Amino acid sequence: MEEPLGHGRSCLQSGDHAAAIRHLEEALQSPGGDSVDVRLLLAEALWQQSLGGPGSEKALPHYEAAVSLAHSAGDSSKEGMVSIGYGFALLQLGHADAARRHLTKARTLAENGGNQEAVAFADLLLLQVGAPVPTGEEAVHEAWASFTHSVTSGKPVVIFMRGTLAAPADRSSLEAAARLRAAGCRHLEVVDVCVPGANVPDGLSNLSDSVHLTLPQLYLSGAALEGWLDLPTAELRETLLAAGVALGELPTEAGETQPCHGTAAFSAGLKPWEVALVELISQSGANDWPAKAKRLSELSPPEGSTSVWPTLDVADVEELWHRLAPIVRAKLEMQVEMPCGHSCSTCPTRHDCHLHHEVEGIRDIEELAVR
Questions:
Q1: What percent of the chain has pLDDT above 90?
Q2: What whole-number distance in Å separates Cα of residue 340 and Cα of residue 336?
Q3: Other CB atoms closer than 10 Å to residue 269's CB: what's the count?
Q4: What are the pLDDT digits (tens) for 222-235?
Q5: Which of 97, 198, 297, 320 has the fewest CB neighbours in a 10 Å radius?
Q6: Final residue of a domain: which of 248, 271, 303?
Q7: At residue 358, does pLDDT exceed 80?
Q8: How far apart are CA 104 and CA 220, in angstroms?
Q9: What is the mean pLDDT of residues 237-261?
């Protein structure tokens, strides 16, 4: 089952919904394949294929099955989070009575489990039951506003992104992590919208993946900070401090620097997955290719990308690095400016970046071709 499930997840992340549905239906028919994860991914793929249109009705039986499986397993926390996602889908499709029933159950389970953020989100969605059903972009923004309000209320800073600060899952999230580090922001609450859990209800990926939303989003004191990625570092730092966010010293002042791995400087002319591989090499060196292949398979295309993220096996990844290494070496020698404002020669964390060591002695592509 794991192979079709993995392929289905990768196809869904790359936007190939038809292939995702095919692989996930195969996973569902495999021995032991009828699981909460398979059902939710299949529901998401069907929803995304229809973009909230009539075809989204096909997703509902899979949400229902996921709720039933979680209940049968005695996992009340999981059942509650799946029920919120199911209730949200029902709400978007105009099934008011069913939406109220599942959201009420989700609220009860969340309250019993002490998950106040889930309680608040369920309450906000319940307020929308019976109201005129918004459509398209309006529906996405209303639901997102309810979701983020339930998570950010009373908190100085929260970022919604794909991945984490330590392991961003797309290009935009990688840039966000670099900007926050450059401003001295080391510790803040991160909501990884790719991973359902205490903050992200199961089944709500169809919301966070919407074309009508741009991620990452940074919230200060419950309000979104618009255009924060375009702010100069000093202004971003001042804004964070004014909101009561505890910041460390700037990297160049503190002596406690962290490697920035500013691979945005190498992105010109490279595909998103190639940039992601360069980032992985910068963090841990050109080794452990199975782990790097696995990590690449878990990443998502950057926001707004039309590229199809390929499936790369271990040999593909190693071969790709050997092709990229001369290009990276040439760009390192150009001393391009990183997002933090440093070039490689002035970078205070150069000793933590593996790129320099890995490209030493790498011959040009033309030389490799005549071997």
A1: 17
A2: 11
A3: 8
A4: 899 999 988 888 89
A5: 97
A6: 248
A7: no
A8: 30
A9: 66
